[in-house]
Specification:
Number of strands: 10
Structural class: alpha+beta
Number of domains: 2
Largest sheet: 5 strands, mixed
CATH superfamily of the largest domain: Hypothetical protein, domain 2
Order of helices and strands: EEHHHHHHHHHHHHEEEEHEEEHEH
Strand content: 5-15%
Oligomer: single chain
CATH topology of the largest domain: Endonuclease III, domain 1
Distance between the termini: 28 Å
CATH class of the largest domain: Mainly Alpha
């Protein structure tokens, strides 16, 4: 019925650290060359040991140890928190995490839940593919791993939505084994400390940062170290106003020595986001006040969420409204809604069409459509649609 139309980081503490004699931290890299003629710093064993000791000492005194997912830490609890914390701040995540864990306390419970129920718990967090991937991964874990998360980086990376850094966090924070990580906060700390040039989204720069993370992560207390690095990035080595006097590794920070710590990391090359627009049909039952919703396709923006039927032009929307009612339906304009995605800006033009009872009953021949009554949640909503519906329903009461 419609065409097709992703929100900042921070963090966490680990499970009790384990001795890991089987896997040592990688040896020094020396002057290894990588793409773009970048040269990695030659870190000696003494340099690596000094860096880790300073970071761990800071963690013991100042690291965060009371976040919800740090209590009774397990691979599952760490996994859920890590996925939620991608592109989202800790303060935003906490209530979502608590509600999610209350409803889905185990992998098995999450796997059995409906996607609508999972996405309902995700409404407002953004980047909804994360919620879909969590649900899909839970089902794979139950089917292939007996309901227990794998405990190696390689196996975890095979699951939908789990990349190398998330896998490393699960292994180090949830299991207690050695694994490096490279989330946004860690990237910022490493870029500044070693004045790594280039945008860290570039493959060559990421390769260099991973090699640094591998070198610096100690064989023992890797979980505490990783948590500390995330905490330093989140609370000390912040994006705009780093508190360098409180940084445990400020004495060896190259960016600080140059007097320009905020010059690193280098920014992503600027590119103006394109502007798009769409029209959304707000079909309201004249007698009950219920609103017609349509489930979006699984792929694409807002995949699997409930939304208002969406069109590429006001003409297409008008034709659909007339078809719904069986007569020419007057359209009432609502104010446009501006919404920004990662790659573009979207202007939504909602228009109200009031539909007769007889007509609404005639179109209910698909599970992709539902008449929505305030308080009866069919599943997850696209964020701007949720706000519009809430405002609309309040005006109809």
């Amino acid at each position: 019925m419609s065409p097709t139309v992703k929100n900042q980081p921070t963090r966490r503490s680990p499970a009790p650290a384990k001795e890991v004699p089987a896997k040592e931290a990688p040896a020094q890299i020396g002057n290894a060359q990588i793409e773009d003629n970048r040269v990695l710093p030659a870190l000696s064993a003494a340099q690596r040991k000094r860096f880790a000791k300073a970071v761990l000492s800071w963690f013991d005194d100042f690291g965060r140890k009371n976040l919800p997912w740090q209590q009774d830490a397990s691979p599952y609890r760490v996994w859920i928190s890590e996925i939620m914390l991608q592109q989202t701040q800790v303060t935003t995540v906490i209530p979502y995490y608590q509600r999610f864990m209350q409803s889905f306390p185990t992998v098995a419970v999450l796997a059995k839940a409906s996607q609508d129920d999972v996405l309902d718990h995700w409404t407002g967090l953004g980047y909804y593919a994360r919620g879909r991937n969590l649900h899909n991964s839970a089902q794979v874990i139950v089917e292939q791993y007996g309901g227990e998360l794998p405990t190696t980086v390689d196996e975890l990376e095979r699951l939908p939505g789990i990349g190398r850094s998330t896998a490393g966090a699960i292994v180090s924070l949830g299991v207690g084994n050695w694994a490096p990580i490279l989330d946004g906060n860690v990237k910022r700390v490493l870029c500044r400390h070693y004045t790594v040039d280039g945008w860290y989204g570039q493959t060559a720069v990421q390769k260099q940062l991973w090699q640094l993370s591998e070198q610096l992560t100690p064989a023992n207390r890797a979980g505490n170290f990783n948590q500390a690095m995330m905490d330093v990035g989140a609370t000390v080595c912040t994006r705009s106003n780093p508190n360098c006097s409180a940084c445990p590794v400020s004495k060896t920070c190259r960016a600080l020595a140059r007097g320009k710590p905020t010059d690193w990391p280098h920014r992503k090359p600027s590119k103006e986001k394109p502007k798009r627009q769409c029209w959304m049909l707000v079909a309201i039952d004249k007698s009950s006040g219920e609103v017609l919703l349509e489930k979006r396709p699984q792929t694409g923006i807002w995949g699997g969420l409930w939304s208002l039927p969406q069109y590429d032009s006001v003409g297409e929307l008008g034709d659909a409204a007339n078809l719904l009612d069986g007569n020419v339906v007057p359209l009432e304009k609502l104010g446009p809604i501006e919404h920004t995605f990662t790659h573009f800006h979207l202007t939504i033009h909602p228009l109200i069409a009031r539909i007769s009872r007889q007509s609404r009953d005639a179109i209910m021949d698909t599970e992709q459509l539902v008449w929505y009554k305030h308080g009866d949640t069919p599943g997850g909503f696209a964020a701007p649609v949720a706000k519009l519906l809430d405002k609309l329903m309040q005006s109809l009461v």
